[in-house]
Amino acid sequence: MAQSAILNLLLFSFMLFGESILAAKIEIHHFNDINSQLQSIKRGFDPDYETIPTPCGNSSTPAECEGGIANLIYHMNNTSPEPGATKKVRISTGNLVGGENGWLSVNRWDAFGKLLGRYYSNNGTVDFIQTFGYKEFEAGLARTLEYFHINTTKKIVLANVNCNDSGDYGDDERDFCKIREDAADFAGIGTVGVIGFINPYVEALSSPGRLKFDPIVPALKRVADNSKYKSLIAIGDGSLDIAKQILENVPKVKLVLYGRGFGATRNMSGEAFPMPYRNGWIATAGRYGTSFGKLVVDIDDISGEIKQVTGKLVHSDHVDVAQDKILEVQNFLIKVQALEDTKLGKSVFKLEGGTRCWRDECNLGNLVADAMVHCAYNAVENTPVDKPIVAIWHGGALFKDSVMGGKNISGMDVHRWLPYHNRAHLVRVTGEVLWRVFDLSGSGITASQNSAVKDWGQFLQVSNGLEVWYKQDGVDVKVDRIRILDESEGKPVMRDIAMNAEYNVVIPSFIKEGRNVYDLVKTAWKPVKDIGFDDVCLQNYIEALKMVTVGFEERIYINDPVSPSCDHPKKGGNTALTVFLTILFMCVIVGIAYVGYRYVWPKLTGRAPGEAQNFRNF
């Protein structure tokens, strides 16, 4: 009788708690920072020195290549299940889409949403939970929603988005607040949930519309304290420090899975996987799908809480069959290859882009800015402007590192240089505002991710017809002089800007929308015309040129003396040096002539040195 009562009690417990007892072990595959990387990439990619990895082809070998969406999916689908695990869940911390390889501007957000939703959930057979990183917002909130609505997963957790203080939210912001969840159930257990977070810097770095994001730890604690779940898994784009702060301050969180869009690339190097910390565990995986974490979460049968997390990091080595198995990937790659084969023109000089453009003048920046001027003049051909058009472009938009001199420029190069498919805008602005804009630009010269003024690539490249002098004092950088093209007297002349005058300037949507430091001037622009997509403008310009001859035409001067008496002062005090050398050379010539006249010629003619000569007799 006693045994029967015990069995009935156990049966009642199973019925009451459902899977909370049966699902004692759950297998997690977690990954982060894929950034739309379709193909595998060359091994040895170092994000400290390179802006984008080098993709591999199907003929590559595992010794040469790793990662990419196709290989990541292949390895997750074919890895052997963990013994005793009753269910499998896939979790991503975001940054699944990204522009820097150029594919996003080619294939668009909805196409990637369809692809990723289908394959990360293994055609709906595996639970897939994700949060968003800053890259999901980088083309604007409308495209974020487009990506989400075609994505079949429908489980987006983001607990620190502020949907309560939404007085100035528009339709897109309200739509986003409806689709995202503070927390989602984990594997149907009922006692364990997943909560998501995003670094609030996304408001400056990306384009989440008017969405506001609360500080991570207080937001997660508030949600956790009000949650029905006994244990929580926190996922998001952050860093090892943020992960530790969560475990220190949010007792319900037992596992933190973080992406590394904002953190150092090797900040868990040499640590155990997953890394034990306080009463929980921390794990992250490799960028671009180079690895994924394979974890087993043990759930206590009685309390329903997470009691143990074990696992390993699985590397996504290149597999030829992986890319052949995924038809959508192959279709995308056909488009990419067609653009690679499209020759737009040729570069005479090496075009330098990438990280150099984020701190200093680069000739790729010169080329892009000049292209926007060309595009603007074509756009207003039937309505001539009253003043010359110049352009400014933020260096953070330029990703591809370089194209060597003498090489063809392909259609795909343009997408890699300008990967975000942003729009270019012709606006009118006063000299006073333009001066302020370049002051803000100067903050990018010394800024970094760790400084008080964050570096989001705000340093501005300029077109022909603009010259800017910066003066640097430690970390403080200010504009010293700006000259702009003027044709008021019937001929082109470079003149100092007048604070009250208005000028025609082409700017990217990055500046027009007031992103990061340019929030201070977002209402100062007077719109004239939307001239189109930046990558289209650049492509048309290169096709018109055929031969790109941009070498290094200095337009930006940092810590160089301003010489108001000269129309075109040169960098590094070259004007003064040239004058000095010219005078020295002339003195030498005069000295040689004098010596010849006073001493050498008299000896040759038999006269006494210094004797007066009659030059008419020569």
From TrEMBL:
GO terms for cellular component: plasma membrane. One of its GO terms (biological process) is AMP catabolic process. The chain crosses the membrane at residues 576-597. It comes from the Eukaryota. InterPro entries: 5'-Nucleotdase_C, 5'-Nucleotdase_C_sf, 5_nucleotidase/apyrase, Metallo-depent_PP-like. It is an enzyme of class 3 (hydrolase). Residues 1-23 form the signal peptide. Residues 356-522 form the 5'-Nucleotidase C-terminal domain. The keyword Membrane applies. Its EC number is 3.1.3.5. GO terms for molecular function: 5'-nucleotidase activity; nucleotide binding. Keywords: Hydrolase, Membrane, Nucleotide-binding, Signal, Transmembrane, Transmembrane helix. It catalyses: a ribonucleoside 5'-phosphate + H2O = a ribonucleoside + phosphate. Belongs to the 5'-nucleotidase family. This is 5'-nucleotidase. The lineage of its organism: Eukaryota, Metazoa, Ecdysozoa, Arthropoda, Hexapoda.
